[in-house]
Structures are given as structure tokens and as C-alpha cells.
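User: Round two. Same drill as before: sequence, then structure, for each protein.

Assistant: Same drill it is. First protein:
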Amino acid sequence: MRTQDLIYFLHLCDSKSFTTTAEEMDVSQPTVSQALKRLEEEFKTSFFLRKRGNNIMKLTESGELFRHQAKKILDIVAESKELIVQSENQEVKLGVPPIIGATLLPIFLPELVKFSENINIIEKDGSRTIYQLLRKGEVDMALVGFSKPFVADNSPLKAGLIVQDSFDVFVSANHPLAEKKEIILSDLSDQTFVSLGTGYVQNKVFLKWAKKNGIEDSNIFYTNEVATAKSFVKANVGAMMLVDMATSANDGLVKLQIKDVTMPDFYIYLLARQSATGCLQDKVYQKIADIAKKEFPKKLYHD
């Protein structure tokens, strides 16, 4: 069966004329006649009741049935071509904030690069900024941190929880408080804190926590660079609230155990725009989820 024969057939169904179909399809009338003949021989039936000449009276019952099926076949062919083009040529823009990029991308990227060369990493300051890029359609999917579980509601986003972590307070290894096994909140009353800028979830979480626990605004220093913030803390400029996964032994930082206060949670989600869903995007989404399930079996809550 030739798909072009189906196109001629559907045009015949509308025009009821071999001549009109041939003229509008820019082929000879015998071309159209032979296409119909091939289809009728294929299905061993007649699709039209015909008059003499080039006019067709109407579709037979089998012709009407085949008309609907022919449309479906051509739709499937068109959709298949589109999916193949997407699979071969589509670029997936993956948005990643700096902290998540520094901690999770080294885990995901080696496998993603093997999987597809058409992944473009977009790194901007903070999860809040990346989330807005995703909502605007400037990235296709993103690894985004939230201070509470993400609720999709009517959002056009597909969401899977990759890993759950917590915020803690860190100081320099040379800080007097670093030597204590446990501290209480009042030990931090005169402490200067370093915070990231408004594009980061850390900023919102820390300011809410600081207000709740009586930490004065005048004792907070701001920077938009994660590395700069860590270097200030290491140099004993102040303490900083960070997620555990954002620190390493090389940072020279020590986590404080504060026994009389609850520390906020941090949830990292893989989000994707469902309106932009394509073959490659779906595969990248599933690949990241599979890697996360293997790497974070105790902290994974992927749906």
C-alpha cells in the first residue's frame, strides 16, 4: 500500500471527480485511477458507486469505512515522522542552579552525555530563577530546589522528587563553635551570617528562619556567588545556612548541631514542561530519574 494512494483516495472522497482530483494534485487522471484501482484490489472491494465518465456518485459502505481508516493511517504516518525528527534533532534545555549543578550534575552528566549530545545545560543563579525560566518556556526541564514539597495542581509541569535534604548552619573549622558537639540557638545571637541573593531558595528559607529565631537583619551579609559565600565563612566572616549536599570536606566548613531548634527541609525536584514534551525530552527525564533512584536509594521519593 502506498501512502500517496491514500492521499488521492481522500481527495476523491471530497471532490467526487477524477478530473478535479488530478488537476488539484497536479498529476494525470490515469494516475488517480490507478491509485484507486490498487486500493480496491488490495481490499477486494469497491469504494465508490460510479457513473459513466469521471464522476463518482457516492461512497460505498466499505468506502466510507476505509475513508475514516485512511485518515488515521496518514495521521499516524505524519506523527511518526515528527517523532523521528524530534528524536534525531531535538535539543533539550536543562536548567540547573549553581548549588544543585555543583552537587548533582557530576552524578548525572556523564550518563546524560553518553545518552544524548543534544542536552544544553542552562545555569543561572538560584532555583527561584531557574523555576521562572521553566515557567516561561526558556528551558524544557530543570532540577529545582524547594523549601516544601512541590504541588503541581493545575501547573503544566511534570514533577518527580529526586532527593530530600536539609538545611544546616555551617561555620569555619577554626570558629570557636566548631569545637562544640552541640550548641543552642542563643550561641548564635551575636553571630554574623552570610546569605545568598534573592534568586536562591536559600535566601527565602534563611530569612524566614532568621526572623523566627530573632536574628537581626543588620547581622546578615549578602552575596550572589556560592563560592564567595563559602570563602567568607571559611575565613570566619560569619556563619551560613546551607543544604548538606552543598558542602564538602574541601570547603573547610563544620556543621553545627543546634539542639533547641528545628532546621528546614530542602526538596530537589526534576520538573519538565508537559506542553513541550517530546520523544527526547521524555527519555532524558526518565534517564535522570533512573540515575537518581540508583544513587539516592535512601533519599529518593521519585513518583
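Second protein:
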Amino acid sequence: MPQEGRSVFRAVEHAKVYSSVVDQILAGVRSGTFPPGTPLPAERVLAERFEVGRGSVREAIRVLEHAGVLDVRVGSGTYVVGDGGSEENALRARAAVAGEHSPLDLIVARAALEPVCAEHAATARTSNDLRVLEDLVLKQERVLEEGADPSAVDADFHLAVAAASHNSVLFALERTLVDLMREPMWSELKGRSRGRRDQARHYLEHHRQVLGAIERRDHRRARQLMAVHMSEIETGLLTELGSARDRTDGPGR
């Protein structure tokens, strides 16, 4: 371990022990103190430097391994993964510490499920399903005109598309994802992304297009349009994540 790594660490507050250990190891990885492929100090050494119990260090390493930051090799040690310092991995680690799910992991799951929901909705929808979807699009438009938060009605639209598939398993899975979309990290990042360049109205137009394809029973187009919608949401999240990193780093870094 580089000697200068000692200056990265400080004693942590016992009230938030393992989360502070996670943050400090992440800081060391992202600053280059621990370059890709290098081993971390032994668990005992880290515990001494952080002035915490070895259990807290062990839990922090477990979280960072799951997040893709570290690679624990039995009998060899714990190593920094090649892209371990990426913003995506850091977000996953912070979400785990908060007891949440990474917004980027959530959008991957949504991108896998929601185009399928839209495709099946286009073939299975009823006239009542169409009325529900149309009402939600109109409500979303009113909410935006009032300058209010459209997140609830936005989620309701996606849940209604799943309901229109008349597939109880798809609907149950989508309901789980909608519940996860209420987590603070998703809400905050998606909210900031939605505020960029009138992105909220852009998403509303996506909903109108998906509704049109479902109404025409064009299942291929419905799936395609929902996939495009998910892709643009992901792009917006990544853009906002990069901007947040730039703001944190500041000029000259």
C-alpha cells in the first residue's frame, strides 16, 4: 500500500461506523490512492487505521464487493476492480449503505420489463384500459402546467400499462419496481434529470406515443417506443450523475 494512503484515513464516528468506512475506502479508490488492481491493506490494518472493529471493516468490504468496487480473492486479499472507482459503482455502494437500490440498477430492470408490458398491453388492452391511460396522460399534462411534481402520475401511467397487459406476473413485477421508485435516491436523481431542458414534457410526449401504439394494437411499436423511453431516462440519469460529480470535484480537478 502506498504510504500516502495513510493521509486519506481518519477516525470515524461510532454512530455511522461502517458507512463511514465505505465512504473513505471509496474516496481512496476514486482519488487514485488505491489504483486499479492494487490490494487494500489487511482487514486488521484497516480496522486499526479507522479505529473501528474488524466487523465494521468486513461489512464495508462486503458492500463494496457487491457494488463492483472491490474483488475479494480467498487466500490472496482484497483488490480494487479495474473500473471500481466509476460513478456507477460508487452510487451502488452508497445506495446499499442507505438501504436502497441504485437508480441505475433500477432503470436496467425497468428497461428489461416495461417494453414487454407495453407489447402485451397493445394486444390485450380493453376499452377501459385505454380510458385509464388517456386520463393519466391528461392528468400528467395538467400537473406539468401547474408546475407540480409529476412523479406520482408518471409512475401510475407505467403501472397502468402493465395492468393493461392483463398478465398478473408482469403487473406484480411492475408494482415492485414502482415501489422501488419511491426510494429517495431514485426520486432525487430522477427529479433532477426531469428538470433538465424541459425533460418532463419530453417524457409526457413519450407516454402519448406509447398510448397511441397501444390504442392501435401495434405491439411491436409499443415495445419499441417504451424501450426508447427507458433508454432516454437512463441517459438522463447518467448525465445528471456526471454533472453531480463535476460539481463535487469543482474546477481544476
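The longest strand covers residues 70-73.

User: Perfect.
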